[in-house]
Design brief:
By secondary structure, this protein is an alpha+beta fold. The protein has 5 helices and 11 strands. The chain has helices at residues 9-14, 46-54, 110-120, 175-189, 203-211; strands spanning 22-24, 28-31, 39-41, 61-66, 77-88, 103-104, 136-140, 143-150, 158-166, 193-199, 215-226. The strands form 2 sheets. It has an 8-stranded mixed beta sheet, sandwiched between helices.
Length: 228
């Protein structure tokens, strides 16, 4: 298992297992925009940075997840930066009683998934984000109350838990924990180790992840760039 790929997860995913989702070349890549805004340059060279900027259309944003904040190449501007904690679960908590409540989400749930993601902002969401694979939900009175799924696969044997979100009126019921265990169970069956990113200041979320077997691996920074 190549844990070093987690040091630059967007570059690793878009030049490796998920290269079929990438636009760009060996200097810079971005994921196909309908899947989300993730991007990365090969390095800090002038050529690589120019190639990164060329992938961004006016009004578009890209998100870079790197060990340090990224300076904007010519033509782009930094919109914001935020510290992240990258966490990994070498011994994830197995399924518990009640986790069978988690249901595989389908195309029929696309609108509800989008509404929940945009309202709660667990991370960037695009029209095809749900196609990363392995999204589960929990329903209350026929409505999607919470969900979690899969996103980056930066190297063989490593997969990211993502889009963990719950409507405010359904929080405090343990739904997120159930969904994360369900997603991780799929990873375990496939021989994959779960990882995730949390905003570093979200102590409540980090505490939950720790109870599920995650430990902090390293600090990361998300830098949002935009062409104006």
């Amino acid at each position: 298992m190549n844990l070093a790929a987690l040091d630059r997860p967007a570059w690793a995913m878009l030049t490796g297992r998920q290269a079929h989702l990438a636009l760009g070349d060996d200097r810079a890549v971005r994921i196909e925009p309908s899947y989300g805004p993730f991007a990365a340059a090969r390095d800090g060279s002038v050529l690589a940075q120019a190639a990164l900027a060329a992938l961004v259309q006016p009004g578009e944003q890209i998100w870079l997840i790197e060990p340090e904040a990224v300076c904007a190449p010519p033509g782009l501007a930094v919109v914001r930066t935020a510290p992240l904690l990258q966490m990994i679960a070498q011994k994830p908590m197995p399924l518990q009683g009640g986790d069978e409540e988690c249901q595989v989400l389908s195309e029929e749930d696309a609108g509800a998934m989008r509404e929940l993601a945009l309202a709660t902002e667990p991370g960037p969401w695009g029209d095809k984000t749900r196609h990363y694979g392995g999204f589960y939900g929990i329903f209350r009175e026929g409505q999607l109350a919470a969900m979690a799924g899969t996103r980056m696969r930066p190297a063989p044997g490593i997969a990211e838990v993502s889009a963990v979100c719950t409507w405010p009126e359904h929080r405090g019921q343990g739904l997120a924990a159930r969904l994360i265990r369900r997603v991780m169970a799929d990873f375990t069956q496939a021989g994959e180790t779960p990882f995730l990113h949390s905003y570093a200041g979200n102590a409540k979320a980090i505490g939950l992840y720790e109870t599920l077997g995650f430990l902090g691996r390293r600090s990361m920074v998300v830098t949002v760039l935009e062409r104006r």
